């Protein structure tokens, strides 16, 4: 059950949350107000999404006066990239074996 | 951003082989050949046929979804909570055949990721072990 990828997969499963994260990756640090203007949902909803992203390590917050600024932690995506390359690795190794078989079928 | 097609993860592997599509098709569809490069199986090239892919770590449940001889083949690939589809596409090239494998349906939640990793990693490591054993 204790899979370190769980929080990451879950937090990126929601399209609104993923869009907020993409916005932060693309445009750098943003205030909650700026993210709300682009998200198409209410500010409380955006704050809730940011909380999920923060707990998954995907964003960090910085307080400045009354404003909270959020930024993306791109390195937090590493487990996702690792998982994808593990799955690709399985099929790459099958292709290597298929290649061997095809060569032997000629003999 | 509400596009449902982005709700699952896919794995795509493509390679060009210097062999005719007919020969690759045999390797993809004849059980004694499939066993040599993928897993032990009771595959039959009939749409709706249910079969298993078996390895020392367990079994993958499959069903043939689509067959277009020497061009395309699709089957479901269900294991450890993973519910995915594997699609093979063969494209003739001047030097042989471009073979594409696309596995779709990895959901971004715990069971799927765990299932996928559980199914994929042991074989990946087995293969690595073979490669290392062959180095001496």
From TrEMBL, chain A:
<dbReference type="InterPro" id="IPR001845">
    <property type="entry name" value="HTH_ArsR_DNA-bd_dom"/>
</dbReference>
<dbReference type="InterPro" id="IPR036390">
    <property type="entry name" value="WH_DNA-bd_sf"/>
</dbReference>
<dbReference type="InterPro" id="IPR036388">
    <property type="entry name" value="WH-like_DNA-bd_sf"/>
</dbReference>
<dbReference type="GO" id="GO:0003677">
    <property type="term" value="F:DNA binding"/>
</dbReference>
<dbReference type="InterPro" id="IPR051081">
    <property type="entry name" value="HTH_MetalResp_TranReg"/>
</dbReference>
<keyword id="KW-0238">DNA-binding</keyword>
<dbReference type="InterPro" id="IPR011991">
    <property type="entry name" value="ArsR-like_HTH"/>
</dbReference>
<dbReference type="GO" id="GO:0003700">
    <property type="term" value="F:DNA-binding transcription factor activity"/>
</dbReference>
<keyword id="KW-0805">Transcription regulation</keyword>
<keyword id="KW-0804">Transcription</keyword>
<feature type="domain" description="HTH arsR-type">
    <location>
        <begin position="1"/>
        <end position="92"/>
    </location>
</feature>
<protein>
    <submittedName>
        <fullName>Transcriptional regulator</fullName>
    </submittedName>
</protein>
<dbReference type="Pfam" id="PF12840">
    <property type="entry name" value="HTH_20"/>
</dbReference>
Automatic annotation (TrEMBL), chain B:
<dbReference type="Pfam" id="PF08327">
    <property type="entry name" value="AHSA1"/>
</dbReference>
<feature type="domain" description="Activator of Hsp90 ATPase homologue 1/2-like C-terminal">
    <location>
        <begin position="20"/>
        <end position="132"/>
    </location>
</feature>
<protein>
    <submittedName>
        <fullName>Polyketide cyclase</fullName>
    </submittedName>
</protein>
<comment type="similarity">
    <text>Belongs to the AHA1 family.</text>
</comment>
<dbReference type="InterPro" id="IPR013538">
    <property type="entry name" value="ASHA1/2-like_C"/>
</dbReference>
<dbReference type="InterPro" id="IPR023393">
    <property type="entry name" value="START-like_dom_sf"/>
</dbReference>
